[in-house]
Amino acid sequence: MSVRTLPLVFINLGGEMLYILDQRLQALNTSEDNSEKVMNDIVGAMFSKDFMDELLKPQQLYSHRTLKTVLTRLAHASIMRLNQASMDKLYELMVMAFKYQVFLCPRPKDLLLITYNHIDTIREFVRHTPVVVNQVDETQRKIIEVYSSLPEGEFQLLRQTLLIFFQDMHVRVSLFLQNKVQNPNGRFALSASGPVPHGIDVPGLIRMFDRKGREVRRGEFPTGGSYTSPIRQGCFELHGDRVIRLGMNMYTGNNPEETHTSKASSVKKDDAPNLLAKEELNLLARLMGSMKAENTPETETGFRINLFTTDQEEEDAGASGGAEQSLFGVINIQAMQDEQAATQLARIAGQFAEGDKLPEDLSSSKGDDLLAMMDDL
To answer: Which residues does 3 contact at the CB level (< 8 Å), separation at least 6?
Structure first.
């Protein structure tokens, strides 16, 4: 059984990234033209046909390192630039938001409703650009075609795969801490109350039947929580009421703007050779090759977003080892420069360089060629 996790992971994490960037662009009073261009470029790259066709191929979910690299390239598909430390913390915030949504997912199939909530909001970001809206619509049609007919058992396997993928991420997020849905150790506190999944009876009732199937007696038992029946099932079509709120933009409306993270513990570093590392590089090369970003005109200058208010705050945070300072009201950042970040993929590829039977001129430049190709995007 193939687990099609990659499309849902990229759409949901990409959606969370766009929510944060939109909030940041508004907080910085970025010009409307620049904000619109950033959104259009990132969404256009993320929902491009080649990129989505590659993601929709049946394949296993890869590492955080590979996903973060691709999401970084997506974020930089526009004139906007984020430094490495900011992107690392941004990725943690995206992952924790999606992890919480997967935890609260009423039933495995509702992962689609979470994804559709993300897509609906992303479509709203680019509503003034019909070409990009058509890309979003076409991607959602493919998602509906691929996932809607899957059996419940495969959705359960997909959800379990995602939970295993997230299990080592315990980054504290201020918004979750303030709402008391996350403990100080970074683990989520799940409520024993609320609506039950669609099609499921509210617990607390015991019914007894005789041999002919007639109900003869009823009893009740304490459930330890307050449960209700869902109002109705969410819409799984291209447009409609999804009913559940998971996957919607938590940085707007009544939600507090100040959301930051501080690391209790994060992904365990794996210095041992990964059996999937070479395959991940191949996937990464294909994904990056399909993201054909347009060259920025010489007259068009890019801009850099600091997730701290000033460069001085970044330096102070780096010197203090990530003290509790706030990212634009969104994330606290350990702003130390990672000297190894620029050669990360080359080091992964280097683990296999000695064993590859390639011509000498190809073998020696394998990692450099991949990085050079990505730098040209």
So the answer is: 58, 60, 61, 154, 157, 158, 161
Residue 50 in tokens: 């080649």
Give 154: exposed, middle or buried? Use CB within 10 Å, 0-12, 13-18, 19+. middle
DSSP letter assigned to residue 307: S
User: How many other CB atoms are found less than 10 A from the CB of residue 266?
Assistant: 16
SS3 261: strand
pTM above 0.85, yes or no: no
In this prediction, residue 97 carries a pLDDT of 93
User: Rg of the Cα trace of the chain?
Assistant: 23
User: Is residue 364 pLDDT above 50, yes or no?
Assistant: no
DSSP letters for 1-48? -----HHHHHHHHHHHHHHHHHHHHHHTT--HHHHHHHHHHHHHHHT-
Phi and psi at residue 116, in whole multiples of 5°?
Answer: -65, -35
The residue written with tokens 């508004």 in the block is 26
**Any idea what DSSP says for residue 322?**
S
Burial class (CB in 10 A: 0-12, 13-18, 19+), 86: buried
* Pair 100, 190: CB distance under 8 Å: no
Beta bridge partners of 122: none
In our burial notation (b when 16+ CB lie closer than 10 A, e otherwise), range 300-323 reads eeeeebbbbeeeebbeebbeeebe
Lowest mean pLDDT across 50-54, 173-177, 230-234: 230-234
